[in-house]
């Protein structure tokens, strides 16, 4: 990997991305104040230490495997028609496991207000276009990403910030860092440069897609599919020093995503806006100082999809579905009760309420109910949590075995869950 680094913004005190030359530098954002961790970036990258690191303000641990996930939502469409959108930046452990919801005392609400109050209104404007929830619940989505993942960064603890930093400064820095990193990862442009553009009729092989992205970036990401449709991508990094102003080191994805080897569809977004960047470099995203115009693509509005049933079963896209404890099984599926609308509902089984805790889905009398949504995908109504329809498990169930269901695609077996009316 080349030693060249890319500045991640002067106001972030030189946070940089080390990697192959295809990564494109981007201009500074309107950061609320200059934050410097005072940490060196000459030491080992996260997950590559040979001795125990004691200063976790300057060494990201245990979540040193950073995962920047992007969405390609088409049903309904979100974000510009010529750009993927941000999901977040997740600190997985070096072995691929992960911890979530690490500090409930910092589960900040009104993220938009926090950014505005601390001078990051341009970051907020960018998020409102490129970090969007499939159901339009952006604020809830941002709060979830911060509380679930952002609070788990060791180098973003308030005690690691400069003295006198305002409350929530670490969350503001988190959103600015994620936006900045996303701007160096123009997935749509890299695919387009290789002649791969959204199509209603074409299909692609996994090797064609990953080769194009590796040629552009120097590393191989993981691609995830919803059925045969490409719908998310995972870019992986280690970091040297603090997340605040450290050096991001791009690495190959440690495991393959959920897409099959062939027959992958890359459908166009219907009814979405197209952001046309007025810059001289076609492969860079719109920076906060770039003038843009917005047009509307053909194709009409997104379908409204099926209504939420009051009762139904939940089927996995590969095999089986959910039984009453919320585990994945090939046995007789449980009947679930749904309360609410497709944009916001709770569900329960004969065991009790269903919810997500530390990334794990379960149902029981001692489970606190979580809020879910449902996304129409063709004839299917897919269960979603935190804006994502991806669920995963450590293995595929068979016979009498049951598998714990996790939100997201961090485990080896990835699938979607469809709601079928009883």
TrEMBL record:
Residues 1-18 form the signal peptide. GO terms for molecular function: hydrolase activity; ribonuclease T2 activity; RNA binding. Coiled coil: none annotated. One of its GO terms (cellular component) is vacuolar lumen. PROSITE patterns: RNASE_T2_1, RNASE_T2_2. Its EC number is 4.6.1.19. The keyword NADP does not apply. Gene3D superfamilies: Ribonuclease T2-like (3.90.730.10). Keywords: Cytoplasm, Disulfide bond, Glycoprotein, Hydrolase, Lyase, Nuclease, Signal, Vacuole. Residues 255-316 are annotated as: Disordered. Residues 269-313 have a biased composition (Low complexity). Its main location: cytoplasm. It is found in: Cytoplasm; Vacuole lumen. It is an enzyme of class 4 (lyase). Belongs to the RNase T2 family. Rnase which modulates cell survival under stress conditions. Released from the vacuole to the cytoplasm during stress to promote tRNA and rRNA cleavage and to activate separately a downstream pathway that promotes cell death. Involved in cell size, vacuolar morphology and growth at high temperatures and high salt concentration. This is Ribonuclease T2-like. It comes from Dichomitus squalens.
